[in-house]
Design goal:
InterPro entries: HDAC_classIV, HDACs, His_deacetylse_dom, His_deacetylse_dom_sf, Ureohydrolase_dom_sf. By secondary structure, this protein is of the alpha/beta class. It has helices at 29-39, 56-59, 65-73, 89-108, 138-146, 166-171, 207-224, 251-268, 284-299; strands spanning 8-11, 114-117, 155-159, 178-185, 197-201, 229-233, 272-275. The protein has one domain: Histone deacetylase domain (Arginase, Chain A, 3-Layer(aba) Sandwich).
């Protein structure tokens, strides 16, 4: 069984995982999420689809040749130095597989309403440089890739990570066929770019306020833009016990957030690509559970 009756496809590759002992980025969360899915009585029998590694010509749809040359040479240069991750073959290959997963999810929306890459969401990467925990921008690459076969595609990026999706905001700032929406804590990293619609949340924002703001934002977006596809960055880091943030969403609030995006996708008729993005809960198991709850929210009938 590949999908549920409402059209959810799941994508995963073991290469998503990184060995980063002691690093705040929980790069082994991908395998733990996979295992959580396989132990669940609903999803245990599902086929998890395997992506291919992204080709360099796909990466060049967004990233400059000079930057990619540095990246694949594993050189610390002014283009790669702003990453907060090590730079080596296994890490670069992991990012290439993550990009491949998001491209595959985009392709699967021809048949499925929801396509979930159990990785990806590298929204801080710029065309000519790395930033944060991001070497390659998978969402931007998938959007550009889709234009090859769907030139009139109108893509909506809904970024609900704790941090602004500054890379995507920069890349698509002059593209009328891509609408960037980022709702994030306003007083923290990164240096902000201008999205089509930014909401800068105050520290301490709780479930009710967050969900009301999101609901109103989606109503506004629906009036301004008619997407044919949605890319949802379902960051786990707005959670109340995240080590990098000060938003105060509960597990229940996080899942209701995901349900709102699912319902918005159904109402607009635009299929949705879902990626994980960030998550740094003090208890690592919470990060995994939040990501799993996103899967189950989109898998509900």
């Amino acid at each position: 069984m590949v999908m549920s009756s409402n059209g959810l496809a799941l994508i995963y590759h073991s290469q998503y995982n990184l060995e980063l002992p002691g690093h705040i980025f929980p790069a082994h969360k991908y395998s733990h999420l996979y295992n959580r899915v396989k132990k669940d009585p609903v999803y245990a029998q599902w086929d998890i689809l395997l992506p291919k590694i992204a080709e360099e010509h796909d990466l060049e749809l967004v990233h400059t040749k000079e930057y990619l040359d540095d990246l694949f040479s594993y050189d610390h240069t002014p283009r790669t130095m702003y990453s907060e991750l090590p730079l080596n073959r296994s890490i670069v290959e992991s990012f290439c597989y993550g990009v491949g997963g998001t491209i595959y999810a985009m392709e699967l929306t021809k048949k499925h309403m929801f396509a979930f890459n159990m990785g990806g969401g590298y929204h801080h990467s710029f065309p000519d440089k790395a930033e944060g925990f991001c070497y390659l921008n998978d969402i931007a690459i998938a959007i550009r890739k889709s234009k090859e076969t769907r030139p009139n595609e109108k893509a909506l990026i809904i970024d609900l990570d704790l941090h602004q999706g500054n890379g995507n905001s920069y890349i698509f700032q002059y593209d009328d066929n891509v609408y960037t929406f980022s709702m994030h804590q306003g007083n923290i990293y990164p240096k902000k770019e201008n999205s089509d619609f930014d909401i800068h949340l105050e520290p301490g924002t709780k479930d009710d306020q967050y969900l009301t703001i999101l609901r109103d934002a989606l109503i506004k977006i629906k009036k301004e833009f008619e997407p044919t596809i949605i890319y949802y960055l379902a960051g786990a880091d707005p959670y109340e016990d995240d080590s990098l943030g000060e938003l105060k969403l509960t597990m229940k609030g996080m899942k209701e957030r995901d349900r709102q995006i699912r319902q918005f996708s159904l109402e607009t008729g635009a299929p949705c690509v879902i990626t994980l993005a960030g998550g740094y809960a003090r208890d690592f198991r919470d990060t995994v559970e939040i990501h799993f709850n996103t899967i189950s929210a989109f898998g509900e009938k």
